Every structure is written in C-alpha cells, then in structure tokens.
Amino acid sequence: MVFGVAGVPTHYKGKLSGLFPWLEGMGLNGLEIQCTYGFKMSEENKKIYKEKSSDGFFLSMHAPYYINLGSLNNQVVQRSKSNMKEGIELAKSIGATRIIFHPGGGHENTENGRKIAINQLIDAVNEFTSEIDMGNVRLYPEIGGKTASLGSLDEIIEICKKCKYCYPCIDIAHLHAREIGSITSKEILKSKLNKIKDAIPDKFEQIHFHAYTINYGDKGEIKHLYFGDSMPDGKEGMPNLIDFIDVLKDMKINPWVISEALDSQELSAKFMHDLYVK
Ligand SMILES: [Zn+2]
After folding, report:
1. Taking 90 as the threshold, does the pLDDT of residue 192 lie above it?
2. What average pLDDT does the chain have?
3. Which of 54, 63, 180, 254 has the most CB atoms in a 10 Å sphere around its CB?
C-alpha cells in the first residue's frame, strides 16, 4: 500500500531531507518526484532519495512534459527516447521503480491519426527498452486529461498490452475530465477498472493511480482542484475520493495512489490513506 504526493507540497517549507518524516507523520509513504524540467537532480538530493528508498519509502518519477513519444516530428521522438533512457538510469540510481509519462500530443486527432501515433509510441518504447537494462524500473503511460491528448483508457490498455515494460497509470481525474464527467458512481469506476483487469490481468496488480478532483470543460481538463474545493459552479468536486477508496477496497486492490490536488496534495493523500486503513 502506497499513499503519497506529487512533488514537494507547497505547505512544506524545509529541506528535502525533512520532507520524509513530515510525510510519514501523516501516514504517507510515497513521493512522485516531478522531473518537470528534465531528468536531473543534484548529487546531494540523489543521495537523500537513495537512502529513503532503501529504507522502504516508495519513489516514483514523473517524466518531463516535453517528452512526446507519439509526436509526428521524428526529432522529438528520438530526443524523447534518449531522455527516457536517462530517466531510467536516474530511477535505478535512486531506487525509484516507476516512471510516469504522458503519451503526448501533436497527432492528427482522428481515429486513424491517433492510431498512427499510438503505434509509433509503442515501437519507440519497445526500441529503447530493448537497448537498456531496465532493472526494477517500469514505465507508466498516463491517462491524458484533454479530449485531444493521447492516452484514452483504451489507448493506455493498448500500450500496456504491447509493451513489456509498460503498466497503466490511471489518473482518475484525467479520465473523468477527458470523458466530460464520466465517473459519477462507484459502479462506473469499477467497470472501468475491470476493463483494465480483463485486458491486462498480469499488469493490473501493479496499477498506479493519480487521484484528486478536477475542473473540466468540453475539451476536458481545465485545472486541478484544491482538496475539498467545489467546482466553480458550486457543484461537488469529482471524482468522489470516498467512492474511489471504497472501490479499491471492494476490488481488493493493493494501491499505489499519488495525490495531485492543487497545493494540497498531502491533505488529500492523508484523507485517502486514512479512509483506506479505517
Ligand atoms: Zn501526469
């Protein structure tokens, strides 16, 4: 069981080394390191992460947003491949076991255009993963938040089916947003998770979640919400996190859940953790 935060929460004001006891004090045991501007970090931070992962703290890494393995521009794809290899080496060196990445965009947003982009991504991933020792590191393509971005539920399943080292990152807020408010009940969420379970049963056990509430419009994601905030129109923030935790329990999923709630990751992660262990 892992409950953790995406990046260093804004409520935490201290050194990196003090972040871990702060999180552990809330029952949290996971950190998704945000490599937003590249897979790099200081030697000092590497040492801290390595020590914590050896101690049993769970580390994942979020790949930079400029990585785009589904791009129509071959140069971008080639650069993304070598960036991902750097990320895998960095992950191995600090004991992070999961790298989350966005499948990308820039494709023609038609059924055929999307298919071409996804197939290209699959080939690219299979190429660079065969050229490198993956160690314990696994790759997690993430559900995209906008209707036009790559990474629908079906596309994520397809990638995981065809790439040995890929496992699903189900961002339930992105899924809700890209499907214009689809996750309105426990049953609907369960049916979506069962779809993954049926399609890739061997990988389902290692599923990764991003969970928080989100504001969305007719093109999908607009903005992550602060923990507990309502939508701008006053409606309850969705997807419902209590339902989400119920579903994890009902389906006996051993969860790895990262909160990306706006400026309140630790509050939302603690809330979900406490519900889960109750
Ligand atoms: Zn992401």
Report:
1. yes
2. 97
3. 63
Per-residue confidence (pLDDT) for residue 107, from 0 to 100: 83
CATH number of the domain encompassing residue 58: 3.20.20.150
- Rounded CA-CA distance 142/156 in Å is 7
Domain range for 258: 2-277
CA of 102 from ligand 1 middle (Å) equals: 6
User: Peptide bond before 232: cis, by omega within 30 degrees of 0?
Assistant: no
For residue 23, the CA-to-ligand 1 centroid distance in Å is 21
Query: Ligand 1: distance of its center to the CA of 110 in Å?
Result: 23
Per-residue confidence at 108, pLDDT binned at 50, 70, 90? confident
Centre of ligand 1 to C-alpha 208, Å, is 12
105, pLDDT greater than 90: no
First to last CA, the chain: 13
The gap from C-alpha 154 to its chain's centroid, in whole angstroms, comes to 16
